[in-house]
Automatic annotation (TrEMBL):
Function: Site-specific tyrosine recombinase, which acts by catalyzing the cutting and rejoining of the recombining DNA molecules.
Pfam family, one: Phage_int_SAM_4
Family, similarity comment: Belongs to the 'phage' integrase family.
A GO term from the CC aspect: cytoplasm
Name of this protein: Tyrosine recombinase XerC
Matches recorded under PROSITE patterns: CB (PS51900), TYR_RECOMBINASE (PS51898)
Gene3D superfamilies for this protein: 1.10.150.130, Intergrase catalytic core (1.10.443.10)
Composition skew (Basic and acidic residues), residue ranges: 332-346
All residue ranges annotated as the Tyr recombinase domain in the record: 143-325
Amino acid sequence: MSTYLDPRSPNKHGDYKDCPPLVVRFLYDSETIRGLSPRTVNGYYIDLRTFFRFMKQYRGLSGTKSFEEIPLDDIDIEFIQSITTSEIYEFLHFVTRERENSPSARARKLSSLKGFFKYLCNKMKLLSVNPTDDIDTPAKRKSLPKYLSLEEGISLLKNIQSDFYERDYCILILFLNCGMRLSELVNINVTDLNDDETIRIVGKGNKERLVYLNKACNDALSSLLAARRAMPNLKDKNALFVSQKTGKRISVRRVQQIVERCLQSAGLAGKGYSVHKLRHTAATMMYQHGHVDMLALKEILGHAHVSTTEIYTHLGDSKLKEAAQASPFADVHFEPSKKNGQKDEG
């Protein structure tokens, strides 16, 4: 089964039937009861399937099957109850050694396991002990987010080459001004635009937020809506961003291709920039140039916790230079006195 997930597809995911029954129950409850996004649930699915295949292989229960063919339908609650903390450490060692998972990937897998075992303990009351409780999350290397400079952002907007200019320009304007996620932009509907110059965004976990639009955004949206109304083959009448060829809602991959092409036209290809880096750019510009405080930025970006927002509020080199110059000792300078220059003969 393919593990690729298109959040706009009708089914959104497979039926998870290659997982143990209790895992299937956890995945369905995560999406329908907890309201987690299909992409998040799909990540749980992949991680838990890998874990239980490892468990059967580690315990010598896989027979001659290859790893990807190990069946999991026979894993019951007795098997799960017997899983130890030591075995989970063995799994983390396995994905480190055999699969070369980074600390970030290992942290995600452990998060999936913690969520599943917590569900069995607290929700289903099937476990009395959670074997993941005493396992610390692998430390992840913290790096500064990469973002476009103001000059690069302007160059990007000036060098759009497109057969549907109004759409592609609007895409870039919303990314650079509103800092929305790729999935959020793709799923915007015309009905999400409000008369008070705000836009309704549906973020992670189906959480809604209102984002205020500035003049650049409103102008770009007005041009797009006019061009959209003139389309002879418009099929998806509610989708804001549509394909000129099919008239249907544009795909996530198509937006990525549009951004990649625009970056190339602006001479910015090969610098590590991407759609998500435009989100970094929006947040950085608001913080450094607009002096937006962290709590406001948290709401704009749709973060659940301020700690997540802190990665976007990094200080640029100019700020660090200003901080160094602000020290009260910055202008202190003394010449060595004759006395200080003499040798200590004691």
